[in-house]
Write a structure and sequence with these properties.
The protein has 405 residues and is α/β, with parallel strands linked by helices. Helices cover 38% and strands 19% of the residues. The longest helix has 18 residues, at 372-389. The protein starts with a strand and ends in a 16-residue tail after the last helix.
């Protein structure tokens, strides 16, 4: 067994890595050795040989390279998990991972797992996430919910852009943000961001109470920006409503682990819709600039106020707004008269920009920074984020991961 060790100091983050893969070891060196704030203990040995003797005292996180087909390695990982007892957190890296292995890792209380090949970005982000200290007291996320007034109103695009703005915090420091796609039949949030939807509802529906933070991590996809995305694979031929306990348990857990939560709602009103809206801080109805859409928006506004008189005050976003001088059709004055104080703002029609972003699987700002859609939406979302940020003091950062890009 060969060990490369850098003695950590109290001010440094200490990463312990066990691997017999020479290529992965080289990647580890490149990833973590570039930062003077990170102490790297690289143990170049099979997990079965080193798990019982590796020094984890004072470590911040342990990364274990696992061969899940090797029974001895699985037993060694279990002993390591028992010995660390949750701290330092253990991140497993494997050549492959199926549902059975994922369940086994969850039962072992493994903090997270990655499948090779692993990018340096994903590795660093995962390590940073699993060692993030819990807040000193329980906090609740600010929840932003978007409801379509008609099909194809553009809710998913606006929800994604809002989540990206909340993630960056405008001019402030970055905050943790989760985008939740509750359109369980036709959801497209993951597809719009070129991510794999990982929410397995069949796994948690029989027992919603077993959904905990570790299982949530397994079922969360992460965009390269750091945005967490919770979405289920689309089921276009399966029209069903899930037990409200499944949805409320999911949202309760998400809200306790993120600063901001953005929800993309389906157009259909389910048995759990009232609960979701009741727990929302900022509620937006997305309409198009057509008479039928505005009429349906009025119906939704009325329904919300009847069902939840003490609930959130909904605001209307009119998407794909386009007004040409002397052209027929609705004018902005018509919208303001129809909606009154419920009208929040209009989003300009920029079909080419949105189509390119969707086809490329990227946010709008990555296609064109400072585009007119993002600029208008920012006027509504950023002030709300600033108000929520002022409610609580900034959270102390205990650990810091960085690497040369």
């Amino acid at each position: 067994m060969r060990m490369i060790k850098e003695a950590p100091t109290s001010s440094r983050t200490r990463v312990v890595v066990l691997t017999a893969d020479a290529d992965f070891a080289q990647q580890i060196r490149r990833t973590f050795s570039s930062s003077p704030q990170i102490g790297l203990d690289l143990v170049e040995s099979a997990l079965s040989d080193a798990a019982d003797t590796v020094d984890t005292d004072g470590a911040t996180v342990v990364v274990a390279d696992l061969d899940p087909k090797d029974t001895e390695e699985m037993r060694a990982l279990e002993r390591l998990a028992v010995r660390t007892a949750g701290w330092p957190p253990v991140v497993v890296v494997a050549q492959e991972c199926d549902a059975q292995l994922a369940r086994t890792l969850i039962h072992m209380k493994i903090a997270d797992f990655l499948v090779k090949p692993v990018s340096s970005v994903d590795l660093v982000r995962t390590c940073a996430r699993v060692v993030k200290p819990a807040p000193s007291e329980e906090t609740e996320a600010e929840v932003y919910t978007f409801i379509p007034a008609v099909g194809g109103a553009g809710v998913t695009t606006l929800a994604i852009e809002s989540a990206m703005m909340l993630l960056s915090g405008g001019a402030r420091s970055r905050t943790s943000t989760c985008l939740v796609d509750l359109n369980l039949q036709h959801g497209a949030c993951a597809e719009y961001l070129d991510l794999e939807p990982r929410l397995d509802l069949s796994e948690i529906e029989p027992r919603p109470d077993r959904l905990d933070k570790q299982l949530l991590e397994v079922m969360t996809a992460y965009h390269t920006s750091g945005l967490a995305v919770i979405a289920a694979p689309p089921q276009p031929a399966e029209m069903r409503s899930f037990d409200p306990d499944v949805v409320t348990r999911l949202l309760d857990l998400v809200s306790s682990n993120f600063d901001h939560v953005v929800i993309d709602m389906p157009r259909t009103w389910f048995s759990w819709t009232d609960d979701v809206l009741q727990g929302t801080n900022h509620l937006f109805i997305v309409s198009e600039m057509t008479v039928p859409s505005l009429k349906n928006t009025k119906h939704i506004l009325a329904a919300i106020r009847v069902r939840m008189p003490d609930g959130p005050q909904p605001k209307v976003i009119v998407n794909r707004f386009e007004q040409r001088m002397f052209a027929p059709g609705l004018k902005k004055n018509d919208i303001e008269q129809a909606l009154g104080d419920d009208f929040a703002l209009s989003i300009p029609n920029n079909y080419r920009l949105v189509r390119e972003a969707i086809d490329r699987g990227v946010p709008l700002d990555e296609v064109k920074r400072g585009n007119n859609i993002s600029q208008e939406l920012r006027k509504l979302i950023v002030p709300q984020a600033a108000k929520s940020a002022a409610k609580a003091p900034a959270e102390q950062k205990k650990f810091s991961f960085s690497f040369a890009r």
